[in-house]
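Q: I have 153 residues here and want to know how they pack in 3D. Can you give me a structure?
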Amino acid sequence: MLAMPTIKKRAAKLRIRRNYPSRIRYMLFVSSIEPLRLTIGLGSLLWAAMLFYPGDTFAIPGYAFMASVGSEYAWALAHLTHGVTAVYSMLTGAKGRLIWFADPILGCVLWTSTAVCLIAAGPPLHAAIAPDVVGALVSWWLLVRYRGDSRGS
């Protein structure tokens, strides 16, 4: 026969397993999106800083397709615009059409195009593309949640 603590542990594990769908639903649809907005905004600022850094980033073969879309400074300026707007709107609570365009819409277009350009540069794909793909997925989710968030964050 099983000891009482073992039975309680098994029951607790079953409750946790059954709770996964509701926990995932809560994380996706109810929880605050502010940490994601801050992360995406800081990611854009970091992209801008690295592209403004002296040197020719687009000379690396993995960035060849990005170079054909726009110059290094154009990409850096777009990332800087998104990063500053995302952090500003989150910290101040500012809303409006300009913020709507420069934060979730520009972020979605920018992160998605960055990921697509890096993947389209062709094989061999490198592991450094993974954060950009995640950034694209998160930016799409932020676009969906931005207007629908009941707290307006």
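Q: Anything worth noting?
A: The chain is about 75% helix and 0% strand. The helical segments are 4-29, 34-52, 64-69, 72-92, 97-120, 130-148.
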